[in-house]
Amino acid sequence: MRRLGLIGFSGSGKSSLAAIASKNGFKTVDTDSLIEKQNPEAFELLENGREDDFRTLETSVVSDVLKSDFDFAAFGGGVHFAHPAWKEIYESSLKLVYLRSSFENLAGRFEVRPLCRRLGLEGYERLFKSRVPLYEKAATFVVDTDGRGLGEIWSEVFEIWNSLFR
Ligand code: S3P
């Protein structure tokens, strides 16, 4: 299967890249949109301290996505080496592109996210720092995003897709 997954912290551009891929004729899926479709209140679980319940929902959506047909999948920012769905992702042999950004570069893009609202900026930065090695462990490829426009980042992601599947 010619499939590539996009991972990285909130605001790193996963959904925007999936939208570009879609405009270019690729079949794309976005786990956050699927979660919201299944349960419009799902994201409130994160604000209410019920993260485990959210991850259970997310795990089931990720599991469905892994069984489906797509070219590019944008995963939520919690999807990494320590996610409950990791074993299944790993066993599916899906290649993952980690969109690597500094915390400073993401500022202004994640403040509205429910986890940021619950943890506050300092707690959210701690979460970011704890996740960086987990994204790196999960990644097949790393694409740096700091100081680069979406078009340039898409070109690199597309090059990876071509190198694997063309
Ligand atoms: C989350 C990131 C969000 C969304 C949910 C939890 C996280 O996705 O899945 O709010 O754990 O960092 P984005 O990365 O698309 O913002």
Structure description:
The longest helix is centred in the C-terminal third of the chain and has 25 residues, at 114-138. Strands 2-3-1-4-5 form a five-stranded parallel β-sheet, with helices on both faces. It is of the alpha/beta class. The protein is built from eight helices and five strands; from the N terminus they run E-H-E-H-H-H-E-H-E-H-H-E-H. The radius of gyration is 15 Å and the shape is globular. Helix content is 55%, strand content 12%. The chain has helices at residues 14-23, 31-38, 42-47, 51-66, 86-91, 103-106, 114-138, 150-165; strands at residues 4-7, 28-30, 72-74, 95-100, 141-144. Helix 2 packs across helix 4. Bound molecules: shikimate-3-phosphate. Shikimate-3-phosphate (S3P) is lined by residues 10, 14-15, 32, 43, 46, 76-78, 113-115.
List the helices and strands and how they pair.
Elements: E1 4-7, H1 14-23, E2 28-30, H2 31-38, H3 42-47, H4 51-66, E3 72-74, H5 86-91, E4 95-100, H6 103-106, H7 114-138, E5 141-144, H8 150-165
Helix pairs in contact: 2-4
Bound molecules: shikimate-3-phosphate (S3P).
The biggest sheet, with number of strands, parallel, antiparallel or mixed sense and barrel status, is: 5 strands, parallel
Number of distinct helices: 8
Gross morphology is: globular
Quaternary: single chain
Output the radius of gyration: 15 Å
On the 0 to 100 scale, the average pLDDT is 96
Distance between the termini: 12 Å
Strand elements, count: 5
Bound molecules: shikimate-3-phosphate
SS-derived structural category: alpha/beta
| Arrangement of strands in the largest sheet | 2-3-1-4-5
> Order of SSEs, N→C?
EHEHHHEHEHHEH
User: In terms of per-residue confidence, which ranges show pLDDT below 50 for 5 or more consecutive residues?
Assistant: none
- β content, as a range? 5-15%
Percent of residues in helices: 40-55%
